[in-house]
Amino acid sequence: MGSILKPNVTLSFNRYDFVVVEWLDAVLRDDWMTHSENKGLRTRTAGWVIVADDTAITLAGTRAEGGNFVGAMTIPIGTIIDAKRIKGRLITGVL
What we know:
A hairpin with a 5-residue loop joins strand 3 (56-63) and strand 4 (69-76). By secondary structure, the protein is an all-beta fold. It has no helices and 5 strands. A 5-stranded antiparallel sheet has the order 4-3-2-1-5, with no helix packed on it. It is 0% helix and 44% strand. It has one domain (18-85).
């Protein structure tokens, strides 16, 4: 059996930082495949950090005035390949 994914990045983000996380997503296939085709899908997700701990990071894709968020996604730490904080403001004058 292959090895289980281990966290290979250290998350040092603050709440409400805007980040891009590259992670290995699960893939569902409904056709025949070989062992060598059994790979996850490299995925990138961007959003504001809502919660980050030693098990997962939760990002929200939309932030409104007043600090309300919607469209949250939780990504298990063990699937993260890389994560970067985006510096500066992407939208000025609103948030």
